[in-house]
Amino acid sequence: MSTITDISVFDVRFPTSRHLDGSDAMNPDPDYSAAYLVVRTDAEDGLEGHGFVFTIGRGNDIESAAIEALAARLRGRDAEPILDDMGEFWRELVHDSQLRWLGPEKGVMHMAIGAVVNAFWDLKAKRAGLPLWELLARMSPEEILDLTDLRYLSDVMTREDALAILRRSAVGREERIARLKAEGYGAYTTTPGWLGYSDEKLARLCREAIADGFSQIKLKVGADREDDVRRLRIAREVCGEGYPIAVDANQRWDVAEAVDWIGELAPFDLRWVEEPTSPDDVLGHAKIQRGIHPTPVATGEHCQNRIVFKQMLDADALRVLQIDACRVAGVNENIAILLLAAHKGVPVCPHAGGVGLCEIVQHLSMFDFVAVSGEMDGRVIEFVDHLHEHFVEPVDVHDGRYWPPQLPGAGAQMHQASIDAHLYPDGPVWAEAV
Amino acid sequence: MSTITDISVFDVRFPTSRHLDGSDAMNPDPDYSAAYLVVRTDAEDGLEGHGFVFTIGRGNDIESAAIEALAARLRGRDAEPILDDMGEFWRELVHDSQLRWLGPEKGVMHMAIGAVVNAFWDLKAKRAGLPLWELLARMSPEEILDLTDLRYLSDVMTREDALAILRRSAVGREERIARLKAEGYGAYTTTPGWLGYSDEKLARLCREAIADGFSQIKLKVGADREDDVRRLRIAREVCGEGYPIAVDANQRWDVAEAVDWIGELAPFDLRWVEEPTSPDDVLGHAKIQRGIHPTPVATGEHCQNRIVFKQMLDADALRVLQIDACRVAGVNENIAILLLAAHKGVPVCPHAGGVGLCEIVQHLSMFDFVAVSGEMDGRVIEFVDHLHEHFVEPVDVHDGRYWPPQLPGAGAQMHQASIDAHLYPDGPVWAEAV
Lengths: 434, 434
Description:
alpha/beta; homodimer; 43% helix
């Protein structure tokens, strides 16, 4: 038995707004940030669990306060009952009768739970000596199912449905693990597409993306229609016919405007249209999907929980599902969402970028390929070449593919020096700025 | 011109769990709480703006931290540009490009914005020397519309639709104000229905509710089916045939279970079935509404924003709409929701109770009657006879009706002595307990 001796919480912020990296139609000046925690126990192994919520600046303190509120109730508890039954731990945090009033299951509180859950997954994987994707991929179908909470999902996917998916994909796992290690997992890049870049920089970055082997690019749209047409024309010319180009509107439109605007962009052959409207608007997305068929709607990075994803799938409101490592309540809820997507036969192409989202979410896609959907053809994980140097195991992306992480853990661990330098507001990076 | 000199934030909690008041199937031991703020300016009038988020205990500190984060950006600003354009102030807070990552428009951050917005409404109404309902009811249709943000709503209600509703109800306002003052506004009571009470107490409280003139009662259900049947039989026997009895499941069920369970309760003639499942599940509510027709589904106290309400109405997922004073982003967003309900012809019967929810939400229903829907027949505001003594102007409920508040302001102001006594964790009420 070991005791949770300490949970430290850090408000870590990177001053990305100084260079306009990451600017889009809704987020003109983000400072990529992490409300970050480290779990320590008195076990002799000295292992730590790291997790965080990604935010884009202001509000990272509120997210840190929410993590601290959870941490206060965990310090001093035994670690093993938590690590041995992560499904029960998830339910304890999510269904806390008082805390759920703050959601339920959405926003600041739900994301904080995700960070805490993920930190314990990091610790569990380190104790097992495995990267998270492999730890999960070696569990039995019943063990995986016990991690999930299927409450509120049964009108679309029953427990039996979910178990059938996992049992089907229990066959051939070793072959898929071998294939994953040999071939990697597809990646696409958003690097060329930020709104803050000039046409010349866009064209150059498109050429670089293809030279680097990426199988898709994505452009931000939605701020100005003429700009969008001009930038898409440039990208299409550079990339050539047939090369997958997605666009991302970052929730910019109402329904009719989305259908109309996308209609003007559709001749450039769009792989998908991402976040055309409010992430809460299931019926709105369904109307847009009907209006722009056969161009697929993609969404998910702001979808608050499995219940919204269930409806999106039920209503044919999306045809590409984008999980996010830090939006829902951690690994457990993302497994439920992967199961829903597999049940409906919809491909999962995760949102990533920000700070550390690539490092974490790759574990989920690789686990999905090995043990849930069994598919990876045509599926791609977003990649942005940014801030990876702060992580103990930065993503290994080369030849346009993600290559499986090898170190034990869940991928969230930053270097202590990076945390210290970027503490807000007193770390040296910020103290200098002020 | 006046300057915002101070915004004070208080974590106020009432130890209601000690007596099991307010227990239901999902909330066994709530401590009714308020993350509370007071806005002060250097104007000579000395007027203050009070507002709060209602929570049920743990997490009130997180909500307070979110309010503090907003307050920090408002101190030192001029008050008049805010008070003179409350629509613009709402948009500034809700669409803050960094803070919206924490939602967008949901959970801790959105509710905190609601508290801040409502505190400024309190100040504005005090400066005008009017109770909030009357301040709003005396605005022109165009002024009211400028308060709202109709973004993401246009596929169901356009700006023209909303303006048409307001212009129609601009006629006859004085007569409706007179009628409101003469007749009050209907109330129903949840007092008999808490799960923690014995059958004898239930029967006695039903008799008292009728004797007190309430036109409806509501019972909590969803924990145990046999208990529900027995308690409904008692209530129906005491109240008599035809007396409206609603039930509230507090999100307890999945879709099929809800339809099945309600089927067993329907013979007791239910006025409505409240919160049968997750408040996020628009399509689930629609399936339940189809399954239990003609019994109406009611929901809203946990609906995160106008976009979810839009879909609930669009999908015939509810037939009684329950606004809440502290869930969405304040008065402005509730006006948008009242407009949506009026546009679809669905009655609004607000959620209240907790601490102070009755005091605030009555203003919205009265404004709705005078200037939006123009209707109040068959509409009722929830009433729980609890904690009103802490407010400067407690609700005036007698003869089973809410009577219009008369003091200037928005209804949220607590006595300073109540705030001081219930400060968490250092106020005397809590210091004694620990």
